[in-house]
Amino acid sequence: MSAFIGAIGFIIIIVGAVLILALKKGEKKPGKVVLMVGVGLFIIGLAIPTGNSDIASSEAEEEEADQEVVEEDNNPPEENTEAEQVEEEPQETEESNEPDPVEETNTEDDVPTEHTSALNSAENYSDMMHMSKAGIFDQLTSEYGDQFPDDAAQYAIDNIEADWNDNALKSAENYSETMHMSKAGIYDQLTSEHGEKFTDEEAQYAADNIEADWNENALESAKSYQESMDMSLEAIRDQLSSDYGEKFTQEEADYAVENLN
Question: Are 260 and 226 in contact (CB under 8 A)?
Answer without folding.
Answer: yes
